[in-house]
Amino acid sequence: MTAASVVSLIPTFVMPEPEWPDSPALPAHDGPVLDAFSDDEENVRLMLRVKEGDIRAFEKLVELHQNTVIGTAARMLNNLDDAHDIAQQVFVRVWKSAPRYEPTAKFTTWLFTILRNLVFNETRRRSRRREIPLELENDDAAPRQFADHTAPGADHITQQDELERALDKAISALPEKQRLAVVLRRHEELPYEQICEILKMSLPAVKSLLFRARTELRKHLSAYLGEDMP
After folding, report:
1. Confidence band (pLDDT; 50, 70, 90) for 134?
2. Mean of all residue pLDDT scores within the chain
3. Quick check: 73 and 141 in contact, CB under 8 A?
4. Which domains does the chain have, with CATH numbers?
5. What's the rounded Cα separation, in Å, for the pair 63 and 88?
6. How far is CA 98 from the centre of its chain?
7. Is the pLDDT of residue 24 over 70?
8. How far is Cα 90 from Cα 160, in angstroms, rounded to an integer?
9. Under a CB-based contact definition with an 8 Å cutoff, are residues 197 and 113 in contact?
10. DSSP 8-state code for residue 200
11. Contact between 56 and 23 (Cβ < 8 Å)
12. Diameter of the chain measured on Cα atoms
């Protein structure tokens, strides 16, 4: 299977429902449907099927994780088109790396490590070209569309929307490791230990990184003064 074929399996948001006559159907799973991040057993089960060349299992992994990968990349790069490009590269690497895959860590840790490398490469490429990160000025480019919002009333929606915009802008100004740590902690709700593995840092170093990031964010968001910080 070529890289182009893998990319064709990764549309913008919704996986198609093609038939894969050469791949056996996935066995039924007893019990409740698993959230992509609540239990790693299903992810590992699928990835081991991908290791054997099962395209349907790969399609399911993409379906489970594409929005999270795109959302994290968008928050890191402040550009939705670039986030889609990075997501495609992530899943191409997942497919290409499948023959060597061993479940020695959580699947999501492995996935986010691939994403980290690609996102950091992109931010450094931008830095070399002296590109200025895009302002979050419109809904098409704003990664906040991936955040969860409650909507009890119009005034609250407006206030929350303004806060999310200001927070996304402040996060985008953080150094890349601080930015990724905040995104993984605040938006993906990953435990500290998993963030340590993804960033290849010790627990005290990650906690210090997040402390510095929170301090910087509070300075930028002093006008909004929210207690619910990342």
Report:
1. very low
2. 77
3. no
4. 1-134 (1.10.1740.10), 153-230 (1.10.10.10)
5. 13
6. 20
7. no
8. 31
9. yes
10. T
11. yes
12. 58
